[in-house]
């Protein structure tokens, strides 16, 4: 899989709205295809974010091909050996889904966890080295012009580009220009998440908490109507917790760049969790809450193909999940690869429609899978929870290597079938397959 295609023979100007993971990945991919790229970001880039990003194999494979990323991942990413499922009440193990080496070798990449701020800064550096331009500001209007798109910033400055990429997150302004009206409430399922980071040197001062923080494990405490995930960073300086619920209750959405006090935890009933875990949460120096609406989004193109959405602006995959960032990175390389073939302005509508076609089914599948997973690890007491735990306990007594000699009903087989569909996808290969089949229809 090559991520350095030939540069487009026709180079155009992209204005990227949003400088988070999605915007930076997209900026690099488009710049790598030879295009001029300007990123508009309302923050100055100096603010520190907290929490972690999960990089499943389909994302790790892509990033490992980018300049400087292999060494970065070596020093800044935690390799997860598996998913550890625990009782919320006692923290006792309920199940363990091992990422077996044989299968991960076949996937040619690892499941990694990276500090959000580390990855954001690395991608920013990658973009700077590639020649991406950055503009601090907030877009307030985007209109079609005779030869492209005009973007008006707060304060009145106007930028001009051939195309706009909306990478401005789950509360996207650009998305409102793509969709026809508001999404109907009955089509929305909401989730909420609060991220908390605790310094490990603080945890080490409490002997009763040390066993909660396992090296190289992604830990999931399964509660009633909520769950908590936890993982150490690569340098073992920070333990990251995410408190998640498929029910939004009365949560307040927050800015990921701002720390908030623990009053934002009130919508979560944590009384049933292990007292040690409750104590661990209170050792954090604040929290960062997000309310995320999950819905099926039909359109990711606007202004007759002059606007394209990526990342959270394009698809409402749970922010705390395993595939939120990976879908954004796949969006980026899909768009970049397609536009590496641009040779005439008349090809733009076809390339953008192809982007939409290639990404919609993929991201919809990830959205459904991620939300169903959150529901499963947040089941209330009852038969469904008991059946889930009974099935998970089977994983404590067997080591899964491959599908041979496994019954079709085996929990591990079913789980791995879902994982492998998402993990094995190659976004670049999907574009190359399309191009080899259909390029003759658009070549000038």
TrEMBL record:
Q: Name one GO molecular function term.
A: FAD binding
Signal peptide coordinates? none
Record domain FAD-binding: where: 14-203
The UniProt entry, under Gene3D superfamilies, shows: FAD/NAD(P)-binding domain (3.50.50.60)
Question: Does this UniProt record's set of keywords contain Flavoprotein?
Answer: yes
InterPro entries, alphabetized: FAD-bd (IPR002938), FAD-dep_Monooxygenase_BioMet (IPR050493), FAD/NAD-bd_sf (IPR036188)
**Keywords in alphabetical order:** FAD, Flavoprotein, Monooxygenase, Oxidoreductase
Fetch the Pfam families from UniProt: FAD_binding_3
| Annotated family | Belongs to the paxM FAD-dependent monooxygenase family.
Protein name as annotated = FAD-binding domain-containing protein
Its lineage reads:
Eukaryota, Fungi, Dikarya, Basidiomycota, Agaricomycotina
């Amino acid at each position: 899989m090559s991520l350095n295609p030939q540069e487009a023979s026709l180079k155009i100007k992209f204005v990227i709205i949003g400088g988070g993971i999605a915007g930076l990945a997209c900026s690099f991919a488009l710049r790598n295809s030879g295009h001029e790229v300007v990123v508009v970001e309302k923050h100055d880039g100096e603010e520190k974010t907290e929490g972690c990003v999960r990089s499943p194999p389909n994302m790790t494979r892509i990033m490992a091909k980018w300049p400087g990323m292999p060494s970065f991942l070596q020093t800044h990413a935690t390799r997860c050996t598996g998913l550890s499922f625990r009782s919320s009440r006692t923290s006792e193990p309920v199940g363990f889904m091992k990422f077996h080496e044989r299968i991960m070798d076949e996937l040619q990449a690892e499941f990694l966890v990276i500090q959000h701020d580390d990855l954001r800064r690395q991608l920013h550096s990658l973009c700077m080295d590639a020649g991406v331009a950055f503009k601090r500001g907030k877009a307030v209007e985007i209109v079609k012009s005779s030869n492209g798109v005009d973007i008006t910033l707060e304060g009145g400055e106007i930028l001009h580009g051939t195309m706009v990429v909306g990478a401005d997150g789950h509360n996207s302004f650009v998305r409102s220009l793509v969709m026809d009206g508001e999404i109907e409430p009955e089509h929305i399922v909401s989730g909420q998440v609060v991220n908390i980071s605790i310094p490990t040197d603080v945890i080490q001062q409490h002997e009763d908490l040390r066993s909660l923080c396992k090296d190289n494990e992604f830990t999931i405490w399964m509660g009633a109507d909520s769950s908590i995930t936890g993982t150490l960073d690569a340098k073992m300086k920070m333990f990251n917790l995410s408190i998640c619920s498929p029910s939004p209750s009365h949560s307040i959405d927050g800015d990921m760049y701002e720390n908030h006090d623990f009053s934002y935890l009130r919508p979560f009933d944590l009384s049933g969790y292990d007292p040690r875990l409750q104590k661990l949460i209170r050792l954090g120096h604040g929290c960062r809450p997000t309310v995320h609406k999950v819905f099926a989004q039909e359109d990711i193109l606007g202004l007759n193909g002059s606007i394209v959405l990526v990342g959270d602006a394009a698809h409402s995959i749970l922010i705390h999940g395993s595939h939120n960032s990976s879908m954004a990175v796949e969006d980026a390389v899909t768009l970049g690869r397609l536009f590496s073939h641009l040779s005439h302005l008349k090809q733009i509508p076809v390339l953008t429609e192809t982007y939409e076609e290639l990404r919609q089914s993929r991201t919809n599948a990830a959205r459904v899978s991620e939300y169903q997973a959150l529901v499963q690890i947040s089941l209330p007491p009852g038969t469904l929870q008991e059946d889930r735990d009974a099935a998970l306990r089977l994983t404590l007594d067997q080591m899964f290597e491959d599908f041979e000699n496994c019954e079709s009903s085996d929990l591990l087989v079913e789980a791995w079938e879902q994982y492998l569909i998402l993990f094995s996808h190659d976004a670049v290969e999907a574009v190359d397959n399309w191009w080899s089949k259909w390029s003759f229809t658009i070549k000038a």
